[in-house]
Amino acid sequence: MGEGQGAVRLRPPANRVNERAVGWWRATLLLLTAAPAALLGLLGAFVEPARWWLLASAGAVALAGLVCAAVLPAWWYRVHRWEVTAEAVHLRTGAVWQEWRIAPMSRIQTVDTVRGPLEQLFRLATVTVTTASSRGALRIEGLDQEVAAALAERLTRITHQTPGDAT
Amino acid sequence: MTAPPGDQEPWRRIDRRAMAVAALAMGGLGVGAGAPALIGATGADPFTEGLGDVPAWALLLLSAGVLLLAAGGAAVEYLRWTRTRYRVGPERAELHTGLLLLRRRSLARERIRTVDLTAPPLLRVFGLVKVRIGTGEHSDGGESTLRLHPVSRAEGERLRRLLLDRPAPPGGPQAGRDGELARLDLRWARYAPLSFVTPLLAVGAAGGPLQASEWFGAQGALIDWVGDRFQGAGAARAVTVIAALALFAGAIGSIGVWAELWWAYRLVREPGGTLRVRRGLLTTRSLTIEERRLRGVDLVEPLGARIGGAARIDAVATGLATDDSARSADLTTLLPAAPRALADTVAARVLRAASSPTAAPLTRHPKAALGRRLRWATGAAALPVAALTALACLLGPPFTPLAVAVAAVGLPAAALLAREAYRSLGHGLAGDYLVTRSGVLRRSTVALQRGGVIGWTVRQSLFQRRAGLVTLTATTAAGAGGYDVRDADQAEALTFAAEAVPGLLEPFLTREPAADRPPAGGA
Prior knowledge:
The complex is a heterodimer. Chain A is an alpha+beta fold. Chain A folds into two domains: 17-78; 81-161, PH-domain like. Helices cover 47% and strands 28% of the residues of chain A. Chain A is built from four helices and eight strands. By secondary structure, chain B is of the alpha+beta class. In chain B, the strands form four sheets. Chain B has a seven-stranded antiparallel β-sheet, with helices on both faces. In chain B, strands 14-13-12-17-16-15 form a six-stranded antiparallel β-sheet. In chain B, strand 10 (274-279) and strand 11 form a beta hairpin. Classes of the chains: A alpha+beta, B alpha+beta. At the A-B interface, strand 1, helix 2, strand 4 and strand 5 of A face strand 18, strand 19, helix 15 and strand 21 of B. Chain B: Residues 81-155, 428-494 form the YdbS-like PH domain.
């Protein structure tokens, strides 16, 4: 296998996501785990017989949330990168499981920009690029809102110029 | 094709015999549901005493109820008949339906990809068919299909020809031939019992009588009766005989299911560039796929069929049955389980290729992929063994031999499956097609048109990174939306992807001296 090819690898896409994405991811993880932990803790305060179990599981959930919030966002920030060339969109995401996605411009069907409430707080936006494949969507998370708007506009302009129904 | 003036195309109605069908169906339902209930209520036993003992009022009540149901069904159907109309103009196919709320649905004719005709037994008696007209859209809620239920068989055929007959694509006659590509060979029935249907039906054959006897409160009697049959024989012998009988019944049943699905099967290429599958014993089906939407084929070998040397062919096409995914597997099959060599031949005919890409030699994957599969399989097999061992330590005798037996059977079987899974892995290029193979319980060899690839996904877990493996997915608009090349050598897979679709991946590749192979995790 691979004899005479040297090490061929995918080069990382050119652009990092915005630094504020770290804070956004951290807040999302903390909120996601805080809700069930609080619920379990509340139940533990009221339900006498199962108090120990409920409080212990609340503690476990909270601990998992804290660890994830401490480790994952920084890791994601190092991995998550994106790039848009004249021909294709290139995206790298993930941490333990890393994923590179490449979609050619000529096959892009829709370009959406989404700003969730938390993202608004951090002045971030997510650009979703879909192709005709049910498994081919690219989500570029953690972009500065202005960068995202410019990117979406650019992608829409390029895809309008390419003919065909993208299947 | 000279277009007639569009708006003059008359509106048509669905067939008025729909009312008769509905009346019969509802009446039958009434008899089926009402008769047992009445028998139960009156306490009569028509099987031993005849109908004489059933009181007259019960018979009157039953027939009145059945008549009422039949009339009600016909009345609802009459309303539907008056409110449903359709027409096919030069630009659009339109359907208006709705009892209270008028629903107008209209499809652009150039978008129509499939026209399927289905005739369940009741409709067949009347010479009627259901028509399903579909486009290639990925839609929610099936907005992109028109269903005409029912129209006469001739009208269904007319619609099918009208909607799918298109001028031949430019570029002159293509290679390959029109006409019949495959037809049923009754010897294929021998592959039917090898499918997963057999054990399912066997369980049904064993459990069905138990359940039914419980409804009549006779379960105990049934068990006693079966026990009497095996008086004197050991429990092991009884279980073996019953299991063998159930499996035999399952095998017979699976052949029956196969016959219902595949009787009179024919795969035909029609002049307009469409593939047509016709099949069915009681319910006849006609499925049509526009060749322009075909992106490749999937040669599927479930484990049982593969041991028997058989394979089936599924179409990989855009816009097939996206609205009801549960039935899509059934609807995309171009060839039922047939001898492997024949399956390859039919695949080549379908793809208009000289030799089938599914039979092309493939690149094997690195040994590290075998290691991963062995670890998964033994891990999965070790779980029940560990649980049983724990029980054996706690409770002793009955669990000790069980744990030993499960370990003795499960671990080698897992290792064997893992080895088979590894040997199934492969990928390669064959002419215009990208070929990838994987799976052991359901080995699938997908040949995908290189022009149909609309993107790449490369995935790598921490473990794969250490072993220099990647999972490469070619995304496509057709079929499953993406097809995986699992656990291939990293450098080899990326070169393969770059070669399969020139120009897409190259700008993002770097070639380095082979010092450190895994890509940088971050930085």
